[in-house]
Amino acid sequence: MAGVDMDPEVARRLFEEGATLVLLGVPQGTELGIDYKSWQVGPRFRGVKMIPPGLHFLHYSSSNPAHIGGETGPKTGLFLTLKPRDILLANWDPKEEDLNFSASEDEEEVSRVRANLQDLDPFLGPYPYDVMRKWVSLTDRLTQDVAARLQPLSGRVCAFCDVVPELQLTHTKDREESNLPKNDVACQSMKEGLDRLPLMKQREGTELRFSSIPRQTYPPGATPAQITQCSLDLSYALKTLLEENHKLQPLDVLGELQFSFVVFVIGNVYEGFEHWKRLLAVLCRAEEAMRSHRDLFLGLIAVLYHQLGEIPPDFFVDIVSQDNFLTSTLQDFFQFSMGPGVDATLRKRAEKFKAHLTKKFHWNFDADLEDCAPVVVELPEGSGEISVPL
């Protein structure tokens, strides 16, 4: 873990007031990080010091020794809320390849560590203050309560799902009495082979607990005209989402957007990206809500500004530009922000954001949507004409 250049007085104050993670027994070569930075653990590593108070994301991936391949396992992460001078103590569990924080509940053990913190100091890496501003900009709307509500009951955010069979058939007799295909003859096709595999489900307690995106975007008893309108303007869907999941604090939906982004970009959880995409679609296509929720949409612009400024360069090519969803979604957002009744400050902020994205990514948000309609292509004489979708 590299050192951080800072004023000695500042470093002393941070050492005294910052929180400390004491992580014992983490195998050498493990990839471990906090917030937006990670390292490979060395032989002297015992934890991280000088951590600023607030919400943090600790993440790690176990690694095999070089002589047996050196492969890195899937990433595991957890959100921690730390107070000034907090000490969290964890021991590495080699069987589970995970950190066990139960020692933090032993007040006597924590007091002993606190008393010997000065001796432990040479083995503690400093918090990476060079990325602190970046981390804060990506999580300024994400509160401890929202993070606790969204992360799995297990407390661990895992890059790969922990799955178990839907039917626990531990004995041969159980399988014989079930209606599952028998495995005593060779498969005749790929489909037959897939049919023989047990149905799997995610282990209880390991699921991310995202807000449910309403499948029905229109109110009960809606007329055909209202159904059409509600499919173009997702304000009713947004209202339903907020009432069911963020009734007391509607702006917490921005914290959920940040949570989704963090668990994808830092935690490598693809489900986070999918939820980020669905949330973004509802927010950006809520035309009527844009006129009555000024602060929500001003906040959305700020959140997206920082998120789109921090993603890897190839991210757009590989994922974000998939189906052109981001440019088309934002095109709707910018179009609605120019509509009648929209707050002047919101309108101006949207115009600036649009100009920023156009300059940075060379996206054209003013392209006519009708450009995607079929066009008539002239063929050689005698061949007639054909309508070709471009």
From TrEMBL:
Residues 17-152 form the AAR2 N-terminal domain. Keywords: mRNA processing, mRNA splicing, Spliceosome. GO terms for biological process: spliceosomal tri-snRNP complex assembly. One of its GO terms (cellular component) is spliceosomal complex. Signal peptide: none annotated. The keyword Coiled coil does not apply. The keyword Iron does not apply. Gene3D superfamilies: 2.60.34.20, Aar2, C-terminal domain-like (1.25.40.550). Residues 210-366 form the AAR2 C-terminal domain. Interacts with PRPF8 (via RNase H homology domain). Component of a U5 snRNP complex that contains PRPF8. Belongs to the AAR2 family. PANTHER family: A1 CISTRON SPLICING FACTOR AAR2-RELATED, PROTEIN AAR2 HOMOLOG. Component of the U5 snRNP complex that is required for spliceosome assembly and for pre-mRNA splicing. This is Protein AAR2 homolog. It comes from Muraenolepis orangiensis.
